[in-house]
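Exercise 3.2. Students should predict the tertiary structure of the chain below and write it as structure tokens, then compare their answer with the key that follows.

Predict this chain's 3D structure.
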Amino acid sequence: MKNLTLLILVLSCSSITVFSQNGGYGASFTSSSSFIDMQRTLPRPGDALKRKEDTLQKQFEEKKLEWPAKYVYIRSFKYDSELELWVKNERNEKFKLFKKYKVCALAGTLGPKRFEGDYQVPEGFYYINEFNPNSSYHLSLGLNYPNVSDRMLSDSYKPGGDIYIHGSCVTVGCIPLTDPMIEEVYIIAAHAQNEGQDFIPVHIFPIRYNVKKSVDYLAKMTKTDEELKTFESKLEGAFDYFEQYHQLPVIMTDEDGGYVVGNLKSFQPAVKVERIAKPHKTRVVQNLADVVHQWPVYPGGGQVMLDFLNTVGKQMGDMLPENINKAFVQVQFIIDADGTPVNFKVLRGVENDFDDELITQLEEKMAKWKPALLNNKPVAKLMKQNIEIIRPE
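Answer key:
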């Protein structure tokens, strides 16, 4: 059996260094000092804390989360351009999602970082090892790249470094957020550090492994690259574990530098059941009218129709993909000459399974219309309708 090395080490650490690349606000202090109080004395973190701390506390309360969080977990998805911040307050409880942030720029492509100057955002399992209050990019949180695996698999002399989550929305290989977003992440991470979380884990994935569009793109990227395919599959195991348990897996490296997810021996990913598409109401419609004297009328009028669509939109919110909280879908259908809505088609949708289920809901729940009239005769009329889909809080 290959020798394994724990990637995340549990260390007894009594001090941490906070410094600025430009100098001027550096400070080194012991655990007897308050980390968050030190942040309040620094211009940028202090200003951010004054403006945002109360708002963040209220947002925690609205989501029934305890402020401040004692444990923070960050995960980022390169292709999907998102960063998530998860929190909890007891070691054995499950992490809960606080917020998703848009990663506003991306350098490089999918795959790990392997040498200095490749402009790649690393992929793998890291932790925050630096709070930079005077970053050239507003505020920044440094990551411990290269980690054990990177040092074994990357260029021996120039593996690269200086990888940060930072503001200013520009990047040459880091994870950039807008300034307001990095302020929130920095404040929450600083409070967790103050509460004793010396190593805040940051997992960087190439994609969301439960989003079909992303999975298809990764499959295309790795089709002729077995080494990259194997690497990305190891990350998928850690992603699946957290998705099922909302706890962090134990990450190790083998003697070749490959990642090993320790908990996977007893872990079986949840079975993904493919939903079978239902047959839809389709008709061969004759004499579809372009111009009519009277448009189709929904029972009760236009407002009742809008209320119906709003209800469907809310009910479909739970089915939105994990990385989407709101979507605007455009649907086309025909009100046939007998008033039956048929031939539903999503013109602008979310993804195939979601769009198919939306059509099913509309077909099953939409009432029969009063048909359009042309020269006082009922005729078929093409309709288009926008529906707002919102994930419930």
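Discussion points: Helices lie at 35-40, 43-62, 148-153, 179-194, 212-221, 226-245, 302-315, 352-365. The longest strand covers residues 377-390.
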